[in-house]
User: What shape does this take?
Amino acid sequence: MEAKFQNIGLGYYYFRYSDPKEQQTAAIVTASLVKQFASCLDSVPEEIDLLYRKLRPKGRKPDFDQLCTVLIALTSRFLFNFVLLDGLDECRDKELSSILTLLRAISIERFQIYLTSRPQVKINHFFQDGGVLRTEIPILADDLDVKAYLTHRVSQSASFSPRFKEIVVETVAAKTQGL
Assistant: This one.
């Protein structure tokens, strides 16, 4: 096996609210990350080749633990590793626990993990319990954007008076409080 370091390993996964939850298992997420990290290399890594040769004759796919082992091995080949998980709060609780366990396992010195999520207890505990550095950037709706959207939507209704439309826009915009 060639001990070659590439500069950057990169993986991304987007949890879609509209996707069926069975398509967002920890194994599928990890397999996607393995594929992306492997594609950053010049050739198929030995870890993937060995696992493929082991499972192919049996007609099986790798399980979550096998994929985690491969992912950890792959990340050791890079000087810097980046993972972005977008919409993590859309992940099922059972799968979320496995994914957070994986993130803890790969949280090494050369690793940066970026998450987007609405506030959620399990995700908050991940940062509080494990010495993982957390920088939180709250994303809030801008009042002008909210008002522009609402004005557009109520303007499509001819049955309301201009004054009523104005009251609706102001009241709803005031209640959003950045959400």
Observations:
- Residues 54 and 60 are 9 Å apart (CA to CA).
- Residues 143-176 form one domain.
- The chain has seven helices and three strands.
- Confidence is low (pLDDT under 50) at residues 1-5.
